[in-house]
Write a sequence for this structure.
């Protein structure tokens, strides 16, 4: 309740729970100084509460004096209310309570982030209250709600989890549905998405939800080694086929036979190897380096890339026939910035994961920090969000709360407009924008200058010159 009072900038707040007859009873009453209210101050607008309960929808009222529906209500007039928030606590389609705050001051319009965070708190409260009621241990105090917070986070995360993948957005639910449909079959899958979106997690979910789950899932990064070594790793070699080939060696396709091979960064595979991979997909057989004997393999192929392969086909960088063979079932993972509704469940999941690992189970994140995390663009996607949570937990010390300052290195304030405003000439303003674009490209590429240069359409040397000019740290 204290956190919500602070979040929506109210004077006081209440937690009210429905008794067996359905009437709302006061359980927690606090003011903005985090003090308990005396019973004589337990006066609220039941008109607002009843409306929210009947609708089963939250009410965010910024100026009650001008609100057509509530400005003349006796309770609003008697209490001289200017703003109010009332959020129903719903469990199994039934309203079991409300969180109510009000103020005598006018507030600016509530932002979508305010509404989202308050809704998340209400969801957690619903789980906590229902669990406590089931066990007959409903101790209605702020301290008890905080002790229950870890189990609440776990239950909230599990509601949005599929084989270790967290997400409740429509795009992720659609992906879960696709995985369920294709997992039982040996169909080839192409997963496309930006770096850090979780492409390998999708591949693992497909493998471990299908009939091949008891056999090997073999993973290789096609962009991490030179062509000759990659060919040997994929298809194997025979003794004497090249310098250093002192014995016969199985390739990963043979190792994965009966199971699945995950070809990450398939867009980086050299064109000559693309021909050999096409033969595997068409014929179901491989030839080791230095050997003319074909060998049968039974492998499900799942490939992934952060490149636009359709565009690479047009430029001749990627073979069209291989693209069609791989793209039987395409799965496109949207960047995290396009599915903001997944951020809260991910925050809860990663906080539980790393707080548990570091023996800090009572750690929580304050609403202001959650708002900052929701507002961030997360150009590094889920991986960057996970890193930010892990770092914040590790550096939290003896604190029991994570504040906005714990995420300062990851949450980039919207400062570019301020920076532009401080520059006088067009050239100075352009340099500000150029530095930001280069910084973001380096962040997205994990500090890899060549990859960032490709994304920006400039040469590696040109980008190096710009990095030195702007004194950008990228390692």
């Amino acid at each position: 309740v204290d956190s919500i009072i602070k979040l929506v900038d109210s004077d006081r707040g209440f937690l009210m729970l429905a008794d067996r007859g359905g009437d709302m009873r006061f359980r927690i009453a606090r003011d903005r100084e985090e003090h308990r209210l005396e019973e004589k101050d337990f006066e609220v607008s039941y008109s607002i509460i009843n409306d929210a309960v009947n609708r089963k929808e939250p009410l965010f009222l910024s100026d009650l004096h001008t609100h057509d529906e509530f400005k003349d209500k006796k309770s609003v007039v008697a209490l001289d209310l200017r703003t109010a928030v009332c959020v129903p606590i719903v469990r199994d389609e039934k309203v079991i309570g409300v969180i109510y705050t009000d103020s005598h001051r006018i507030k600016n319009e509530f932002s979508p982030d305010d509404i989202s965070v308050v809704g998340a708190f209400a969801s957690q409260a619903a789980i906590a209250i229902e669990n406590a009621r089931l066990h007959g241990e409903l101790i209605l105090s702020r301290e008890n709600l905080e002790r229950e917070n870890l189990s609440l986070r776990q239950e909230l995360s599990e509601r949005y989890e599929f084989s270790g993948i967290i997400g409740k957005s429509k795009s992720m639910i659609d992906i879960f549905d696709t995985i369920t449909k294709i997992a039982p079959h040996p169909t080839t899958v192409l997963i496309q998405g930006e770096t850090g979106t979780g492409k390998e997690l999708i591949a693992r979910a497909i493998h471990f939800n299908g009939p091949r789950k008891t056999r090997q899932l073999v993973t290789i990064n096609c962009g991490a080694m030179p062509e000759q070594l990659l060919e040997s790793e994929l298809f194997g070699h025979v003794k004497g086929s090249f310098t250093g080939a002192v014995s016969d060696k199985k390739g990963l396709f043979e190792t994965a036979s009966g199971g699945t091979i995950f070809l990450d960064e398939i867009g980086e595979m050299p064109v000559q190897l693309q021909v050999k991979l096409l033969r595997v997909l068409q014929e179901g057989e491989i030839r080791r380096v230095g050997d003319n004997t074909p060998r049968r393999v039974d492998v499900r192929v799942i490939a992934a890339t952060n490149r636009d392969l359709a565009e690479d086909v047009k430029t001749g960088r990627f073979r069209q026939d291989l693209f069609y063979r791989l793209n039987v079932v395409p799965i496109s993972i949207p960047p995290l910035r396009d599915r903001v509704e997944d951020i809260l469940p991910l925050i809860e999941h990663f906080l539980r994961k790393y707080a548990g690992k570091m023996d800090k189970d009572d750690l929580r994140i304050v609403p202001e920090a959650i708002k900052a995390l929701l507002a961030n663009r997360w150009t590094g996607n889920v991986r960057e969000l996970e890193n930010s949570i892990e770092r914040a937990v590790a550096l939290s010390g003896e604190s029991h709360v994570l504040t906005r300052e714990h995420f300062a290195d990851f949450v980039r304030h919207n400062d570019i407009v301020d920076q532009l405003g401080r520059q006088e000439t067009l050239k100075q303003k352009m340099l500000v924008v150029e530095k930001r674009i280069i910084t973001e490209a380096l962040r997205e590429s994990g500090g890899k200058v060549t990859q960032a240069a490709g994304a920006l359409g400039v040469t590696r040397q040109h980008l190096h010159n710009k990095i030195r000019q702007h004194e950008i740290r990228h390692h």
